């Protein structure tokens, strides 16, 4: 089983739609969780951290479910500019490493 | 502006040649990292350094070497021992494990 797993997509959604991605992780001792956004041929950029209580930043909402070992990202009112690959990142649990998922590709269609 | 700078943006290497990728940050971050990304794949950790004059191997360190003589700088050398070096190389830094990474804009290395 991979340490961090994501559905690669692509998720093709119309503008204005709501879309959600999940990411599962295998290390129950993991402590920190993030979502990154990566545009084609660019570096990843931090989108948001994921807290146990859940957190929201504008149209983006991140949730953590420790019991089932997954994190989620919800994007409301999708924009064309949201088209990108979204990377799930998990760290901690006694290890230095940030473990990156392979990403979920989102295409928002006009 | 604080940030992390990688150079060059594009690099071409001949077979059997060593090349060095530069990574400089002015964020005063203690930890620095090198990742490799291949098409359609996730980021894989090559080396990391949590303090000056100390660094650790990541998951795919074979064929690579690094140094950390200054807090701001963490260059990566891709040696001739790396058999498949064509990839997108990303340098990152962080203030600790809790804060997330800041990435440089990457170097695309191609073997010709």
Detailed description of the structure:
The complex is a heterodimer of chains A (110) and B (112). Helix content of chain A is 0%, strand content 55%. Chain A is an all-beta fold and 110 residues long. The mean pLDDT of chain A is 92. In chain B, the strands form two sheets. In chain B, strands 2, 4, 5, 6, 9, 10 and 11 form a seven-stranded mixed beta sheet that branches. In chain B, a hairpin with a 2-residue loop joins strand 5 (43-51) and strand 6. The termini of chain B are far apart. The chains are: A mainly beta (110), B mainly beta (112).
Could you name the key traits of this structure?
heterodimer; A: 110 residues; mainly beta; 6-stranded mixed sheet; B: 112 residues; 4-stranded antiparallel sheet
Q: How many strand units of chain A? A: 11
Helix and strand composition category of chain A: mainly beta
The residue fraction in helices of chain A comes out at under 10%
* Uncertain spans of chain A: none
On the 0 to 100 scale, the average pLDDT of chain A is 92
Assembly type of the shown chains? heterodimer
State Rg of chain A. 13 Å
User: In this structure, how is the largest beta sheet of chain A organized?
Assistant: 6 strands, mixed
Q: What is the N-to-C succession of helices and strands of chain B?
A: EEEEEEEEEEE
Mean pLDDT of chain B: 92
The major sheet of chain B is characterized as:
7 strands, mixed
Strand content of chain A: over 45%
Unreliable parts of chain B: none
């Amino acid at each position: 089983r991979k340490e961090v797993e994501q559905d690669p997509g692509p998720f093709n959604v119309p503008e204005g739609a709501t879309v959600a991605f999940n990411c599962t992780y295998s290390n129950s001792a993991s402590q920190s969780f993030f979502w990154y956004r990566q545009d084609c041929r660019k570096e990843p950029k931090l989108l948001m951290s994921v807290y146990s209580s859940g957190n929201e930043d504008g149209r983006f909402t991140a949730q953590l479910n420790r019991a089932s070992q997954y994190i989620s990202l919800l994007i409301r009112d999708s924009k064309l500019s949201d088209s990108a690959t979204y990377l799930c990142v998990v760290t901690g649990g006694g290890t230095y490493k940030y473990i990156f998922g392979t990403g979920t590709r989102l295409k928002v269609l006009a | 502006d604080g940030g992390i700078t990688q150079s060059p943006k594009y690099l071409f290497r001949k077979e059997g040649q060593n090349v060095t990728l530069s990574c400089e940050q002015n964020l005063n971050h203690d930890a620095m990292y090198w990742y490799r990304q291949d098409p359609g794949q996730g980021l894989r950790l090559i080396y990391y350094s949590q303090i000056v004059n100390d660094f650790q191997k990541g998951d795919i360190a074979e064929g690579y070497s690094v140094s950390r003589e200054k807090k701001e700088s963490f260059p990566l050398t891709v040696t001739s021992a790396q058999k498949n070096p064509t990839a997108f190389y990303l340098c990152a830094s962080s203030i600790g494990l809790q804060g997330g990474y800041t990435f440089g804009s990457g170097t695309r290395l191609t073997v010709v």
